[in-house]
Write a structure and sequence with these properties.
InterPro entries: BAT_GAF/HTH-assoc (IPR031803), HTH_bacterioopsin (IPR007050)
Distance between the termini: 35 Å
Number of domains: 2
Keywords: Transcription, Transcription regulation
Pfam families: BAT, HTH_10
Shape: flat
Structural class: alpha+beta
Number of helices: 7
Order of helices and strands: EHEEHEEHEEHEHHH
Protein name: Helix-turn-helix domain-containing protein
Domain HTH bat-type: 154-205
Largest sheet: 8 strands, antiparallel
Radius of gyration: 18 Å
Strand order of the largest sheet: 4-5-3-2-6-7-1-8
């Protein structure tokens, strides 16, 4: 059964240790192109700091071979990054035969979600990483039940929209991304995204909180 694991990895064992030390208030998020292999995870979004300081920190980080700023939104910056070979090596060990769903770095660690084909693949990847000196902490493990594709009553599209909004900071205060930009990244209109988020929220509340409290909606 497919398994999704939430992992925590110290930055010193993976990437951006120097940048995170220099910029403790900055968050780095690898965009959806995360994948082991040549050019894996080339897009890096940074929030919480000035472009000058972030660029300076990236230039001095041992895990970054080169970078280019692609977009400057005053409080959020998108970079194209060429990582050192060590980054891809660790990414391969962490993912194994799975797929990296998201990767976010802040403080002194990375939070990574990986979809594995089964629990055995997770155990193998964890063992391989540990054997190579990469300290990996397994925070969460969930299984994707093929008989229940729409858990809590939400559709696949609503689930993907809610997860993307959460991971990209749409629900943060202040927001790190606007509705139109998030919709463009997903590839749908902002009206469609707004509808998916609204209906997804309504269904989640109805199926969880309202049901527990006996509230009729």
């Amino acid at each position: 059964m497919a398994t999704v694991a939430g992992l925590t990895i110290p930055a010193r064992s993976f990437a951006l240790a120097g940048a995170l030390t220099a910029l403790p208030e900055t968050t780095f998020v690898c965009e959806s192109t995360v994948a082991p292999g040549e050019g894996g995870a080339p897009l890096l979004r940074a929030t919480g700091g000035s472009r000058e300081l972030i660029s300076e920190a990236l230039a001095g980080d041992d895990s970054v071979a080169s970078f280019t700023c692609l977009a400057d939104h005053s409080t959020e910056f998108l970079y194209h990054v060429k990582w050192t070979p060590e980054f891809d090596l660790v990414l391969r060990m962490l993912s194994g035969t799975g797929t990296v769903l998201s990767a976010r770095a802040s403080g002194a660690s990375w939070k990574i979600r990986v979809l594995y084909p089964g629990r055995g693949a997770l155990s193998s990847a964890h063992e391989t990483s540990t054997d190579h000196g990469v300290a990996v902490e397994i925070d969460t493990v969930s299984h994707l039940d093929p008989e229940q594709p729409q858990r809590f009553g939400i559709t696949t599209e609503q689930r993907e929209a809610l997860l993307a909004a959460c991971e990209r900071g749409y629900f943060d205060i202040p927001r790190r991304i606007g509705l139109r930009e998030l919709a463009a990244d997903i590839g749908i209109s902002h009206q469609a995204l707004s509808e998916r988020l609204r209906r997804g929220h309504d269904t989640l509340i109805t199926e969880t909180l309202a049901e527990r409290e006996g509230v009729t909606l």
